[in-house]
Amino acid sequence: MDHLPEPARVVQLPDGTYTYIHPNHLPTTHPPAATMPQPQVVHVHQAPPDRTVQRIALGSGIGAGTVAAGVYFGPLLVGALTAIAANLAILAFLAVALAWGVVTVVRSIGGPEGTTAAKNLGTLRRKG
Asked: How many CA atoms lie within 13 A of 58 on its CB side?
């Protein structure tokens, strides 16, 4: 007998008529809100990563392998270009420092000829 559904109940509606209603559809009675404090539920979520570029790429017809390669090699390419740029900046700084050192040494050691040579080197550098 456990497999039979729960029988419907007869309920009188506000207009005075009677009807059958299933017990699951009866309104539940809740205690007044003033008697029981309602717990505050705070949901903290972290935003998912933005995958717009991958979705556009997959939608345009390129394969998932190409998208995965872009995701993997993209940051590697940025890192490699940054390292190259840093190396070039260091080399440029060293070139400026060495040129300044050579000019200073030639001026101080060379006497009047050294000063003239340093001036010629300076004008040659400005022209080139």
From this structure: 11
Residues 6+ away with beta carbon under 8 Å from 91:
none
CB within 8 A of 115, min separation 6: which ones?
107
CA distance 128 to 95: 15
Q: pLDDT tens across 63-107, in order?
A: 777 778 888 888 899 999 999 999 999 999 999 999 999 888 877
Residue 61: φ, ψ to 5°: 110, -5
- Prediction pTM value: 0.40
> How far is Cα 68 from Cα 127, in angstroms, rounded to an integer?
50
Whole-angstrom distance, CA of residue 6 vs CA of residue 122: 103
Amino acid occupying residue 56: I
Cα–Cα separations (whole angstroms), residue 56 to 12, 63, 66, 113: 59, 11, 12, 68
CA angle 76, 64, 58 (to 5 degrees): 105
